[in-house]
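Let us walk through a complete example step by step. Step one is to write down the protein sequence. Step two is to encode the small molecule, pyridoxal-5'-phosphate, as a SMILES string so that its atoms and bonds are unambiguous. Step three, shown after the inputs, is the structure prediction itself.
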Amino acid sequence: MTKIENLVRQNIKNMCGYSSARHEYDGSAHIFLDANESPCGELNRYPAAQQDLLKRHISQIWQVAQNQVFVGNGSDEAIDLIFRIFCEPGLDRVLSFTPTYGMYSVCAQLNNVEMIEQPLNEAFDLDDSVLDDVLKTDGVKVIFVCSPNNPTGNLISPAHITRLLTAFSGLVVIDEAYIQFSEAASWVKLINKFPNVIVLQTLSKAWALAGARIGMAFAQPEIIALFNKAKMPYNVSLLNQNAAVKAIQNQIEMTQNVKLIQAERSQLCAVLQALPYVVEVYPSDANFILLKVDDADALYNFLCAAGIIIRNRNSQLANCVRITVGLPKENRALMQALNNFKN
Ligand SMILES: *Cc1c(COP(=O)(O)O)cnc(C)c1O
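Step three: the predicted structure of the complex.
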């Protein structure tokens, strides 16, 4: 079984995390002269460094203990912290399955850690032969699995993720940024079963809060304690903590929005399938659709000229574009424009 302390960088083990003024005191004072804040104004106080109220709400909704949650300035902060805590620059390696989310390799470069890019199979999934290769690769500390995967949209088969979690002796990060758009179960429920898993979720997609930059990492308390030690002291603003508390209290609205987007997604897929220049519509478990066309650049430019921006993935995947599912009227405008495109 993986021992987390054997995976942590020595400097992180040795360091003593910043202890903020408010951190050292946990009574119930009403005059705060400890943190050099202004006594005037409304946003004059530092936010809760450990986001206690927000974490209390998250722990109830996601059904985990509060010490199994890290809250970051977007899940991108959690991705960066994984490198800083576990990966020795110039020495350790990490691995991701491509094509996938760009921030894993951006953070790898930022932290001077080698990223091994292992292609997914033809169905954009893992299989035993891919995993055999991965498990033979030396020096890998962390493996990133994005499920549902961005930009392909599909879920990664749970059986193969389970094999990875069981057979790999490093950390497995499962990025579930789009899990609410899928019918599949989240891996958050299994953090007690797999001590080497870190599950990432975000309020940026289904929870409609990208502007507030709130991401979560779920893992066993030993891992979360390391995140808390290595993070900047006040990494999530008071405004954003409050916005997050408000948003996650409205789970019904989130679910309704997700249902709407799922319905729009299937309608959009059907229209896309019928277009003569569409080569393939890939199945989606997310709030976007990956599409292979005759000429991705031409389609992208045509839609730009019509005031509709999609994501051109031609450089990553030949002639593929990624289209985010929007509001019904936005999707109708898109479909109309797509019908006018001839190449
Ligand atoms: C959008 C996205 C995120 C979210 O990042 P935030 O920093 O929380 O906004 C994470 N992972 C993937 C795969 C994404 O597509």
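Step four is interpretation. The pocket of pyridoxal-5'-phosphate is lined by residues 74-76, 101, 146, 150, 175, 177, 202, 204-205, 210, 215 (CB under 6 Å).
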